[in-house]
TrEMBL record:
Residues 12-66 form the HTH lacI-type domain. GO terms for molecular function: DNA-binding transcription factor activity; transcription cis-regulatory region binding. InterPro entries: HTH_LacI (IPR000843), LacI/GalR-like_sensor (IPR046335), Lambda_DNA-bd_dom_sf (IPR010982), Peripla_BP_I (IPR028082). Keywords: DNA-binding, Transcription, Transcription regulation. This is LacI family DNA-binding transcriptional regulator.
Length: 339
């Protein structure tokens, strides 16, 4: 086969392969994307020429011809929140193993950013995984109708979802606090748009009613350490002796603020976090929290999305997967203060 000159400063194209083999560019395109449609001798010549010229398919051109991009969007509301580190690792590892590229987007806790990102990803990704979506049920359902989607920690009819079962762990947390003598407990709520926060409060109030103890909801608080100061002040003002907190970041901020105010944890106030993020076990005191299999949730979300993208691969499409959660008891909870 004669060597075909390709300028060193540019990658080979299907036109270079076509010139080398004496066939049309459309034949080269077919031989590389749907080889069964080209006779074996022509196909082998084209494949040999592609190797010789070190040809690499252009992903955008490939997307135009096949309708596939080989990329999956992963949307998280706050990339600095350690909860999402494990989720992102789980999605990344599972996507990489399946030959997909992960497109990671921080939606900044904004439904507008989330909606516009999804619209853009329809052109550049085959599907999307959305963690803790801030969109309304209607907007999320409409977006899922336009492209393959799996949500994490957001339950909407008709949209495949991975649910981390923190509501059941809130009942475990309440039982733990009752066993320590607490009868007045606050739930420190997360963002008003967070379905997880609403579901935890609902489960907690039902559990409290069944057990005959008082729980009250305080806030909505942004899921950041900085929110902990206002949450701690609200808890002290309310007179409760224990708090079950929307996430570990707020809980860690509360520990700092209570220390500043001269209050001891757990002697004066017990704190339970949620998520068991990196660092929860070496703050002061180490945080009692609800532990979730977060990386595994990311992997399961990818498996569910790939089943939508490759229905012929078998295995069936799951619409819902629930990940169990349990309470990890550390030093931030203790006996109720005796007044």
């Amino acid at each position: 086969m004669s060597t075909h000159p390709v300028a060193a400063d540019r990658p080979a194209t299907i036109h270079d392969i076509a010139a080398l083999c004496g066939v049309a560019a459309s034949t080269v395109s077919r031989a590389l994307s749907t080889p069964e449609r080209v006779n074996i001798h022509t196909r082998q010549r084209i494949q040999a020429a592609a190797v010789e010229l070190n040809y690499t398919p252009n992903s955008q051109a490939k997307a135009l011809s096949s309708g596939k991009t080989g990329a999956v969007g992963v949307l998280v509301p706050d990339i600095t929140n350690p909860f999402y580190f494990d989720l992102i690792r789980g999605t990344q590892l599972q996507l990489k193993a399946a030959g997909y590229t992960q497109l990671l987007v921080d939606t900044e806790e904004s439904d507008e950013v989330e909606a516009s990102t999804m619209e853009q990803l329809r052109k550049s990704a085959d599907g999307v995984i959305v963690a803790a979506s801030r969109l309304s049920d209607e907007a999320l359902t409409a977006a899922a109708a336009k492209m393959p989607m799996v949500t994490v920690n957001r339950d909407v009819d008709g949209v495949p979802a991975v649910i981390i079962d923190t509501p059941s762990a809130t009942s475990q947390a309440l039982d733990h606090l009752i066993s320590l003598g607490h009868s007045s407990v606050a739930y420190i709520a997360g963002p008003a748009t967070s379905q997880s926060s609403a579901r935890r409060w609902e489960a907690l109030s039902e559990a409290a009613e069944a057990r005959g103890v008082e729980v009250r909801v305080l806030g909505n608080f942004a899921p950041k350490t900085q929110s902990g100061a206002a949450a701690a002040d609200a808890a002290v003002h309310s007179g409760v002796t224990a708090c079950i907190v929307f996430n570990d970041l707020i809980a860690i901020g509360m520990l700092q603020r209570l220390r500043e105010r001269g209050l001891r944890v757990p002697e004066d106030m017990s704190i339970v976090g949620c998520d068991d993020i990196f660092g929860a076990d070496f703050c002061n005191p180490p945080l009692t929290t609800m532990t979730s299999p977060i990386e595994q949730a990311g992997r399961v979300a990818v498996s569910m999305l790939l089943a939508q993208l490759n229905p012929l691969a078998g295995g069936g499409v799951r619409n819902r997967s629930v990940m169990p959660t349990y309470l990890t008891v550390r030093g931030s909870t203790g006996a109720a203060p005796q007044h």
